[in-house]
Design goal:
CATH architecture of the largest domain: Up-down Bundle
Radius of gyration: 19 Å
CATH class of the largest domain: Mainly Alpha
Distance between the termini: 50 Å
Order of helices and strands: HEHHEEHHHHHHH
Strand order of the largest sheet: 1-3-2
Helix content: 55-70%
Number of domains: 2
Structural class: mainly alpha
Number of strands: 3
Strand content: under 5%
Low-confidence stretches: none
CATH superfamily of the largest domain: GntR ligand-binding domain-like
Shape: globular
Length: about 220
Amino acid sequence: MSQPPPLLSTLAYERILKAVFESRVPMGGKVSQSDLVKLTGVPVGPVRDALKVLEADGLVKINPRSGIELIKPTTELARVTFQFRAIIEKPAVRNFAMSAGLDAIDAIRRHHEDAAKIMAALPPGENVFDQLLEIEDAFHPVMVASLGNELVDHSYRRLQLMTGVIQVKRLVYPAGARVSIEEHLAVLEACARRDPEAAEAAISRHLSNALSRNLGM
């Protein structure tokens, strides 16, 4: 049975978000509703509805007289985003370490080990940002989902959007991706040992290092 087509407002939301992450609209700049109608190919009414959701997500600020202002990636935005992520992810990984099935942990670990081998075989100057993003998406949200808390899930989804804003135009090379993968593996190894303290310490180090990498430190 075929799936029904998405609502036009949902389609507009997704297309605007994609344009933001692909730098086809100016981060920190302003656009008009008519600009977004042309960009999305969606009528103004659904675009207006999509903008309300984007404003609730914190990605745009709607100024009735001066246009729509897009969020700007800043050092402060990176700092508070990763601070909030740590607040959520440290208890989440503790819970995951105690509750996740060993088979599930092992499957994630093997996925990371396979990814590390692929990265090792790539040219050192190749941008692997998209590949690393897939690995991140198969790791962090799984930990957070283990809490089974809808309010946390909602907040974490917004944090993922903010992380995407911070990482716009970011280059990641295989050696750097392997560092992130090794940090994930340290978390997974602690989880496999049912050691929540070590898992929390490992995720804390990873998030701190990830913040530094995003700030170019």
